[in-house]
Amino acid sequence: MYSRHTHRMTYGLPLLLVGMIIVVIVSLSLTVTARTAVAASPQVDVITLNTDIGPPSLHFLTEAISSAESDGAQALVIEVDSPGGDIASMKSMVEAELNSTVPIISYVSPTGAYAASAAAFVTLAAPIAAMAPTTRIGASSPIASTGSNLDSTLQAKLEQDLTASIRGIQNRYGRHGVEPAVKMVTNAASYDDAQAISQDIVDLEATSLNDLLHQVNGRQVKLNSGPVTLHTDGVSVQTIEPNLFDSIYGFLLDPNVIFLLFIIAMIGIYLEISHPGAILPGTAGGIALILFLFAAGSLTPNWAGLALMVLAFVLLVLDLRLPTHGVLTIGAIVSLVVGALLFFNSGGPYSGPQVNPLVVYSMAAVIGLISFTLITIIVRAQRRPVTTGVEGMIGAKATALTPLLPEGRVSYGGENWAAVLDDPGTSVDAGSEVQIVAVKGLRLHVQPVRSQSTIGTYSTPFLE
């Protein structure tokens, strides 16, 4: 035999799996774009990098490089206007530029834009680095993701590493502005376009994209595969925009969104466990869990924090099963808050944006409210008299279908039951009301509701 809950769980699991498969298929399909077509005539691909340097911008840049390499572009122009970002993503972006088989031209634009911090490295890593009038570059000293200074030992290590990197980049492209570029790391130096040009930090100044393409036409750039001469004057320009996957990817990698995905996963699976067969919470929770793991894999978090977040979920489930009356829920809330702050906000200097503590506190309060509500419902249900099954039949009323002498038939819940009087010395007429005192097998043991029931079938004599 199986209950209705068991039946609902049998199709709830397939729905959950189907939902997970759909998410994977959609995510994969979104990565396929129409950027691989070979150009019919010479062209230059252009992208705009105007967000923080992080996993989304890394993905966008690497996809653009792949597209430019496959569509026959003469060059890829990266228009930079970014405040910087995390070091790990910056290093990967620099590596992608240095290993590109298509010439890359970085262009700090439009007027008033800046390539700060990690964005300065991305700008200088291109074989040709240009700036528009009234733009800035620099201020690339390493700091913690909170904006505070690092401890002296770690600060020194990172500065040495970044200094070596920027020296190598400048020397690779024959730029004489090595020491001014180094000061961007060691002294947080920042330069406007005139200073950067005069000190040979960047290659040239251009008033517009067309002016830039005109100036670099005929220049020879150094790639890993060897020198390449640019032919960019008068060619068509193809702008590469972020596709739907890039937008979703960037949205999912916001630490606040990642944390909310974990909360949705926790609530959904928690409700499914507390109410088996509900289907929708489990499906939503499963999808959110997959998206959370996908997004978390692109960060540099503190994994001890994730262990505490998982512990919070375990404590919530145990609080439903054990008579702790909310004590474990309190522990779960504390574990969730501490774990989330550790997971997102202590990943070291290579980490990017952090989760907003107010979001963590608010969601912890919501989790606590849901848990205490469910615990209250469960406790009340346990204290409520049983109204179903054999135990629920005890004390219920039935109607005699036949005389009980002492055996007969009664009607209970619209069904015809065999019955016997608990006291064999009594009898009950058909149509009388009886009370169930016991259930043995398929026979009900009953007793008359009115104690004045008479023995036998004889009525009491009376006088006229």
Termini separation comes to: 62 Å
Largest sheet: 6 strands, parallel
The assigned structural class equals alpha/beta
Percentage of residues assigned to helices: 40-55%
Structural descriptors:
48% helix; 464 residues; 16 strands; 5-stranded mixed β-barrel; elongated; alpha/beta; disordered N terminus; disordered C terminus; 16% strand
Detailed description of the structure:
It is a single chain. The chain is α/β, with parallel strands linked by helices. The chain contains 15 helices and 16 strands. The protein has helices spanning 4-30, 55-70, 87-98, 118-124, 152-172, 178-186, 193-198, 209-216, 244-252, 255-274, 280-296, 303-321, 327-345, 357-383, 389-393, and strands at 43-49, 75-80, 104-108, 114-116, 128-131, 136-138, 190-192, 204-205, 220-223, 226-229, 236-239, 397-400, 407-412, 415-421, 433-440, 443-448. The strands form four sheets. It has a six-stranded parallel β-sheet, with helices on both faces. Helix 10 (255-274) runs antiparallel to helix 11 (280-296) and helix 13 packs antiparallel against helix 14. The longest helix is centred in the N-terminal third of the chain and has 27 residues, at 4-30. The radius of gyration is 37 Å and the shape is elongated. The two termini are 62 Å apart. Mean pLDDT is 82; it is low at 1-18, 24-40 and 452-464.
